[in-house]
Amino acid sequence: MTESTAKSARLAMRMSPREKTTIERAAAAVGSTVTEFSVDALTARAEEVLSDRRVFAVSPAAWDEFQERLDAPARPVAELVALLRRPSVFDE
């Protein structure tokens, strides 16, 4: 077994009896053990969370448009200008 497939690490967690029963029923429904079901579900969710934070896939056209908008000069926003001209609540 390689290091990536060796099953030597452990993860312990506490949960309510209802959560445990739900997980056990779901594992049985797909024909796997609670451990297999939990590892698969947790890993899939972890990968989803992490990929959302490190991978941004866009078409070349969308990327070019994004770059153009970043490089474009800022334009004034009337509401923001008005807001910044008002006295601050901290000045009172």
From TrEMBL:
Keyword Cell membrane: no
Entry keyword set: DNA-binding, Repressor, Toxin-antitoxin system, Transcription, Transcription regulation
GO BP, sorted A to Z: regulation of DNA-templated transcription
Pfam families, A to Z: TacA1
Positions in coiled-coil regions: none
MF annotations from Gene Ontology: DNA binding
Family: Belongs to the TacA antitoxin family.
Protein name: DUF1778 domain-containing protein
Annotated organism of origin: Cryobacterium zhongshanensis
Source taxonomy: Bacteria, Bacillati, Actinomycetota, Actinomycetes, Micrococcales
